[in-house]
Amino acid sequence: MSFQRSISVIAVLGRAVCAFHLLILGYGRVGRDVAHDAQSIFTTITGTVRQPSEPVGNIHLIPFQDRCIQPLLSNCSHILIALPPPREKDDELEAVLQSIQQQFPRNGWIGIISTTGVYGDHQGSWVTETSVCSPSSESASRFLQWEHEWRKKCQHNGYQLAIFRCAGIYGPGRSALHTVYRNTASEGGGITNRIHTHDLSRAVVECMRKSRIGDESSMGDCEIFNLADDLPESRAVVLKYARDLLQSGGLWDNTTDNMVLPSKTSNRARRRETEEKRVCNRKMKKILLDGTNLIFPTYKEGLRHILEQPSEPWWERKVYHP
């Protein structure tokens, strides 16, 4: 899509009086899933991308530029921020954030995708939304500061705010199966937490739905939700389960298992080795999911489902035959 065409589409969207218009800042993996699941409750859905792009179904995609986003804000009801906090000053992002404060209607809903990394190390104990946050990495510290900044913005402007602290996100295209299959697994690490992208999306969309109908009995002006599945587990156990699944499908040769270990330990790997916590999802299940079960309550159901999907990369590759 040309930039000129993007502008014309934006103008039309800006003039439309949409009762429920969702704007997703950051149309990546999370943004795509949320947009797909939210189509039943929003009249219009717009996602931002770094380069102009054709619409995906009835989801409009626009460049992440203030002049493109600004015309939409006064008619938006919900904004999901699925962007990480910037490592350094980002003038375009700052312009967008300033426009939101100036033009997004009061009582609008803003959701922030954050991380359970803000809790830091709790030596394997359970953490809830009220647990102490002591991030041990620069990235997690930025997310915690990002949360604080949005709290101030929303309190000052009268917005509803939902902060989603997500455990490790996995799903089609990225999982322990992919890590094992590509020989990029690094061992080590204690108890870790995860959430299938479909369950993450479901929880976020249900939060939007409840804010839309004004369910004040269960939703406040600022809510924090841990998004995690029911079974924290050690990384080694999860990787072993992934290997067993691949081997049972003839996709893993354990007799030639020459795992390629990273030459340097990544920041993420170091956090796995030094941070242990079990993330409690009780609030998410009670308030957002109305006490119902997750689609993938543990990594076992999630990995099996991924393996069975014909769109996965290994179905195109040569199957190992002993």
Features of this protein?
globular, two-stranded parallel ribbon, Rossmann fold, single chain, 13 strands, seven-stranded parallel β-sheet, disordered N terminus, alpha/beta, 322 residues
Describe the structure.
- With 322 residues, this protein is of the alpha/beta class.
- It has a single domain, classed as NAD(P)-binding Rossmann-like Domain (Rossmann fold, 3-Layer(aba) Sandwich).
- It contains eleven helices and 13 strands.
- The strands form four sheets. The protein has a seven-stranded parallel β-sheet, with helices on both faces.
- The radius of gyration is 21 Å and the shape is globular.
- Belongs to the NAD(P)-dependent epimerase/dehydratase family.
- InterPro entries: NAD(P)-bd_dom_sf.
- This is NAD-dependent epimerase/dehydratase domain-containing protein.
- Keywords: NAD.
Short note summarizing the structure:
This protein is of the alpha/beta class. The chain contains eleven helices and 13 strands. The protein starts with a helix and ends in a 14-residue tail after the last helix.
What is the element string, with H for helices and E for strands?
HEHEEHEHEEHEEHEEHEEHHEHH
Shape: globular
Please provide the count of β strands: 13
CATH topology: Rossmann fold
> What percent of residues adopt helix (DSSP H or I)?
25-40%
What is the residue-mean pLDDT, rounded to a whole number?
84
Give the strand line-up of the largest sheet: 3-2-1-4-5-7-11
The level 1 CATH classification is Alpha Beta
Q: Hey, roughly how much beta strand do the residues contain?
A: 15-25%
| Structural class by sheet pairing and helices | alpha/beta
Q: CATH superfamily assignment? A: NAD(P)-binding Rossmann-like Domain
Name of the CATH architecture: 3-Layer(aba) Sandwich
List segments where confidence is low: pLDDT < 50 over at least 5 consecutive residues.
Answer: 1-18, 213-217, 255-266, 314-322
Protein name: NAD-dependent epimerase/dehydratase domain-containing protein
Keywords: NAD
Family: Belongs to the NAD(P)-dependent epimerase/dehydratase family.
InterPro entries: NAD(P)-bd_dom_sf
